[in-house]
Amino acid sequence: MGGAQMGYNWQVEHPKGYRWIPNVFGIEAEWGRLHYKESIGGLSEVAEPAQYPGYLDYTTTLKNYGFIGGRVGYAVDKVLVYFKGGAVFTDMKSKLCSAPEKSCLNGRPGTTDKSTGAGYALGGGLEYALNDKWSIKAEYLMMNLPSMSTTGTGTTYGVPPEIWPLGFAMHQTMDNFHTAKVGLNYHF
């Protein structure tokens, strides 16, 4: 997993007698690239078409995500402890194949679907200032991602390809996706 972020923080003085009140407020945008794949095999038998019997295999791939949100924190000397939350946007791809090799090859019927959607993200982290321009951080982010469905039409990959209704439907939910990151920030 790798990516980049940018944001803007405001730091204010603690009111006299209220050092426990958060004193850092900010907005942040983040883009991440990862390669996450989840596969389920042998789901059920395919009855139609009769010339392509077999079992369904389902694969979901997540490659990119974007985050935009806010953060609130508590800074003392060179250390910032913060919480963040906001919206997360993803692109997912699903593939459903009637073949044990999950490849939709050898004339086996299958279907693919792409989805982009929005969810929410919550997390927190710890940032330490190395000097006036550089800081390092460790962060946890939980993303609740949108669900995805693959339905309806299947394609037999062959020469020439054929298309017909396969009579199956799959609904995939990624549930919560958890990330832990270490980063280096430059302050303008």
Q: Can you put this structure into words, describing what you see?
A:
The chain is elongated. With 188 residues, the chain is mainly beta. The protein is 0% helix and 73% strand. The model is unreliable at 44-53 (pLDDT under 50). The chain has a single domain (2-186), classed as Porin (Beta Barrel).
Looking at this protein, list some descriptive labels.
elongated, 73% strand, 10 strands, single chain, Porin, 188 residues, mainly beta, ten-stranded antiparallel beta sheet
Give the class-level CATH name. Mainly Beta
Order of helices and strands: EEEEEEEEEE
What is the count of structural domains?
Answer: 1
In terms of DSSP E residues, the strand content is: over 45%
Q: Using the CA coordinates, give the radius of gyration.
A: 23 Å
CATH architecture descriptor text: Beta Barrel
Output mean pLDDT: 77
Instruction: Report the strand count.
Output: 10
Outline type: elongated
CATH topology: Porin
**Which segments are poorly predicted (pLDDT under 50) over 5 or more consecutive residues?**
44-53
Structural class: mainly beta
The percent of residues in helical segments reads: under 10%
Distance between the termini: 25 Å
What is the tally of helical segments?
0
What does the largest sheet look like? 10 strands, antiparallel
